[in-house]
Amino acid sequence: MTYNEKTNELNVPDITMYDMVRRLALKHPEATAYEYLGTTGTYRELFEEIDRFAKSFAACGVRAGDIVTICMPNTPEAVFAIYALNKTGAAANVIHPLSAAAEIRRYISSANSRVLVCVDMCVEKISGIIDETELEKVVVISPADSMPALLKTAYRLKSKKVKLPEDGRFINLKDFIELGRKTVLPLTQADPALPAVILHSGGTTGTPKEIVLTNRGFNSLGTQALIVLKDVTVNDRVLAILPVFHAFGLGVCVHVTFCLGACSVLIPRFEAAKFTKLMKKHRPSMVFGVPTLYEALMNAPDSDKLDLSDLKYLVSGGDSLSETLEKRLNNYLEKTGAGIKVIQGYGLTESLGAVCLATGDGYKPGSIGRPLPGNRFCIVEPGTCNILPTGTDGEICINGPTLMAGYRNNEKETKEVLVRHGDGRVWLHTGDIGCIDEDGCIFYRLRLKRLIISSGYNVYPQHIERIIEQHRAVAKCTVIGIPHPYKVEVAKAYIVLKENYRESEEIKYSIREHCRKNLAKYSVPAEFEFRDKIPQTLLGKTDFNALRQEHMAKQANGENKTNGKNIKEIGKQKEEGSGNAGVQDAGTCA
């Protein structure tokens, strides 16, 4: 594994994910590879388990080129299964365990999976759709299977017992392992050119996609980490909160961690209220998370009493980190003795998570950093391959070794996002707007699809959010575009107030006036709605689609009414001196 800094070329061995980690693990076989609720496993034990799983998959008829669906949270068995399939040359089709039964059926059928590995909580859903699939074996795993004895007993006493259907297709973990005891794996190595993992995303165009990720992509990500995170050792611990069905979770919290020889602390179910206990107990060297996760950390009980001096890296990715949250987080890190600043990263499932990182001289407030070794960025005029000048906002395009092979069975949309430019290289057109400054630092603005065009003007939701969050009463703001009869689209702001503020027309007026003072007239939201919380996707990102659908449903039912009348009335009262002093104070801008 080498990197030519002059040519920005990464030389990665042409091997599987399994072989990459195994090659590196042989250097420290007794180092701890993973921890799960008190159970630990060394790298030697990790590969013993992976090999057992590989034999059992072979006994179930899994062969190179097959696709096996994995429907699991972060447990050791999920990790064993993914690498075992990789060893056999099969691809792991990794899906969210909270997916609806119809979604699971679609994922399984589209992949032609004959074998499914699922957590026991999914058994009822699977039994209802199994006859509509080609499934021959369903391996059912309990989160308790790898727990220490006492915790296992407590878990099973508290949890509802899952009874497997009287159907030979469903087997438990013990019987699955037993299937492979007498199986001999072929001596030939798996072809690294075969697909490694299939993950699922809305894609850059917003519709469901099956994203085919390669062995070379995973191993390139591991190699980039070895170059950039030089101070990470076998004694370091990564808090693996992000799930294995997430590119950031599988790519960074698992594969990169193993390539670094560190310990992946697997968290099967993240609970915000217990975040401080997790940090205190495990004292991680690295945490990779999304902005909502860090909000949870700072808001968790006794979080200000934590000692975070062991932290080497705290990385935020997967969603936009607002300037307000970045400042709060950096202040929090300073108070808790971390001695570091939050590092922004950027990537898509189509690029296997992280493609740039704001480390070292790539750190600038608000920046997502510089490209990782071997990666290239350019900014183009949206919908074209025309490169824009330095500092100009346009569509972010990425070239590098971690890019997906394409969308499975969707050549049309693959060609729309993987585009060969005039330089002969294939670039991923991300659908994100950003710019590159004179120092080569990249700044993310927003999703192209989030851009609101109102009366011909470009309106940037993230800019509006940043301004509204500067108001002293506002904890969080999310802005979407809503239909308008003649402006085509206008902005609507969803606002979560701080604990000591309550919804009122006075507060709404104050926030609107704050917007009028700090935003162009065409950017001022036409509507403001107060919420207790902003809806999130299963991956912890802001669910903009849910907000749009909710708005459209209310509009269809006649529930959305213009609030301009009330605002004007309050404004008139203020001009006449009828407002009270308390309201004046509450509306003062930060």
Can you tell me the CATH architecture of the largest domain?
Answer: 3-Layer(aba) Sandwich
Q: Which strand order spans the largest sheet, edge to edge or round the barrel?
A: 4-3-13-12-14-15-16-17-18
Largest sheet: 9 strands, mixed
Q: Into how many domains do the coordinates divide?
A: 3
Radius of gyration: 25 Å
If you average the pLDDT, what whole number results? 87
Task: Output the structural class.
Answer: alpha/beta
Q: How does the overall form come out from the CA principal axes?
A: globular
User: What share of the residues lie within helices?
Assistant: 25-40%
CATH class division of the largest domain: Alpha Beta
End-to-end separation in angstroms reads: 51 Å
Going by CATH, what is the homologous superfamily of the largest domain? ANL, N-terminal domain
Task: Count the beta strands.
Answer: 29
DSSP summary: helix tally: 18
CATH fold topology of the largest domain: Rossmann fold
As a percent range, the share of strand residues is 15-25%
Poorly predicted segments = 561-590
Description:
By secondary structure, this protein is of the alpha/beta class. It has 3 domains: 16-192, 3-Layer(aba) Sandwich (Rossmann fold), CATH 3.40.50.980; 215-450, Rossmann fold, CATH 3.40.50; 455-586, ANL, C-terminal domain (GMP Synthetase, Chain A, domain 3). It is 33% helix and 23% strand. It has 18 helices and 29 strands. The strands form 6 sheets. The protein has a 9-stranded mixed sheet, with helices on both faces. Strands 9-8-7-5-6-10-11-21 form an 8-stranded mixed sheet, with helices on both faces. Strands 19, 20, 22, 23 and 24 form a 5-stranded antiparallel sheet that branches.
